[in-house]
Amino acid sequence: GESVGLHLPTLSVQEGDNSIINCAYSNSASDYFIWYKQESGKGPQFIIDIRSNMDKRQGQRVTVLLNKTVKHLSLQIAATQPGDSAVYFCAGRALTFGSGTRLQVQP
Amino acid sequence: DAGVIQSPRHEVTEMGQEVTLRCKPISGHNSLFWYRQTMMRGLELLIYFNNNVPIDDSGMPEDRFSAKMPNASFSTLKIQPSEPRDSAVYFCASSFTGANTQYFGPGTRLTVL
User: Which of B43, B48, B106 sits opposite A97 (nearest CB)?
Assistant: First the structure.
């Protein structure tokens, strides 16, 4: 089966700094991953995805890196803003979600 | 588009009572998912439907839980009888079949006393 988890339950950063949220997975055959953002009182919202044939994918202020060797992926948020404060989940194709990392942006 | 619609947004009930949660997926989406979120267990997939047919219900915790999708625009998740440990936020999500991006509703916060 597929297990997806996150490294840190909470990450605190200063406004304007870059944030890096990490995620590990167990199944080396996993071929697709999604990052979701969940704001307080709301459902998860799609941010960015990546397929296993890629090492990196960029969106608007966000970059996802995939390291298949160590079965690790990360979400990087550039110039973190207060509106980025949320819980971030990585998920695999098997619809398994990690426990989430809460990103707190300090003004 | 209004997005995924869930009702009620909040539900407080007593142990033993029947609870019915409702979901209207995004029009045109043919896959629908029910999730449960708690602090202890995070976000768990309960069941998902494709073209109104249940595909995988292995996440349904026990027989007290049942889900139906009578048509493409409506689904229910029923708990009977409810127990305090069922207290959680229940999310419904929808997507196009084969698409991996799911669109989540705002959730129903269930409290069973």
Answer: B43
